[in-house]
Amino acid sequence: RKEVEQDPGPFNVPEGATVAFNCTYSNSASQSFFWYRQDCRKEPKLLMSVYSSGNEDGRFTAQLNRASQYISLLIRDSKLSDSATYLCVSYNTNAGKSTFGDGTTLTVKP
Amino acid sequence: DTEVTQTPKHLVMGMTNKKSLKCEQHMGHRAMYWYKQKAKKPPELMFVYSYEKLSINESVPSRFSPECPNSSLLNLHLHALQPEDSALYLCASSQESTSGRIQFFGPGTRLTVL
């Protein structure tokens, strides 16, 4: 079993749609979680950190459920520019390294 | 300056060549990383330097040799690579925070081994 597992996708949605990505992690020692966005042939860029209390940044909402070892990302009112691969990442302070999920590809169509 | 720079952007090398990839950051981050990324796959950790000392080597073959000359620079020396080593090589840096280690990635070096 992979340490971080994501929805395989791909997700193809029309502009204005709401889309949700899910991610589960198996290592209970993971302390911090992030969503990164990676455009085709570009480097990953931090989209947002994920907190148990939930956090929102404009159209994006991230949530962490430590009891279920589950992370989510909600994108409201999708834009064409949201088309990218979204990577779920857990960070283990004890191990000193991050683990990436395989990524979920989103395509937003006009 | 919130940027990680990498040179070269593209590199083509033969299996007998020796080359080096370079990475630089001026954010004062004390952790730096090398990742390898194949097409349609997530980044795969190779090495971690913490305070200029190698802290993690993910069982990377010795044909890849990392070096951290100072807190701002990270090199990856390449020798006798194989065609399957062709990939995007990403450098990243991070600082400890209450939110964990948020990593900033450079644009990568796209390596082709012939």
Q: How is this structure best summarized?
A:
The complex is a heterodimer of chains A (110) and B (114). By secondary structure, chain A is mainly β. Chain A has no helices and eleven strands.
Structure description:
- The complex is a heterodimer of chains A (110) and B (114).
- Chain A has 110 residues and is mainly β.
- Chain A is 0% helix and 56% strand.
- The model of chain A has no long low-confidence stretch (mean pLDDT 93).
- Chain B is mainly β and 114 residues long.
- In chain B, strands 2, 4, 5, 6, 9, 10 and 11 form a seven-stranded mixed sheet that branches. Chain B has a four-stranded antiparallel sheet with strand order 1-3-8-7, with no helix packed on it.
The percent range for strand residues of chain A is over 45%
The quaternary state of the protein chains shown equals heterodimer
Q: What is the mean predicted local confidence, pLDDT of chain B?
A: 93
Low-confidence stretches of chain A: none
Task: Name the overall outline of chain B.
Answer: globular
Overall 3D geometry of chain A? globular
Range of helix content of chain B = under 10%
| Secondary-structure element order of chain B, N to C | EEEEEEEEEEE
Q: Major sheet of chain B, described briefly? A: 7 strands, mixed
Relevant terms:
heterodimer, A: 110 residues, mainly beta, six-stranded mixed beta sheet, five-stranded antiparallel beta sheet, 0% helix, B: 114 residues, seven-stranded mixed beta sheet, four-stranded antiparallel beta sheet
Topology of this structure?
The complex is a heterodimer of chains A (110) and B (114).
Chain A: E1 4-6, E2 11-14, E3 19-25, E4 32-38, E5 44-50, E6 55-57, E7 60-65, E8 70-75, E9 84-92, E10 97-100, E11 104-109
Parallel strand pairs in A: 2-11
Antiparallel strand pairs in A: 1-3, 3-8, 4-5, 4-9, 6-7, 7-8, 9-10, 9-11
Chain B: E1 4-7, E2 10-13, E3 18-25, E4 31-37, E5 44-50, E6 53-57, E7 64-70, E8 73-79, E9 87-95, E10 102-105, E11 109-113
Parallel strand pairs in B: 2-11
Antiparallel strand pairs in B: 1-3, 3-8, 4-5, 4-9, 5-6, 7-8, 9-10, 9-11
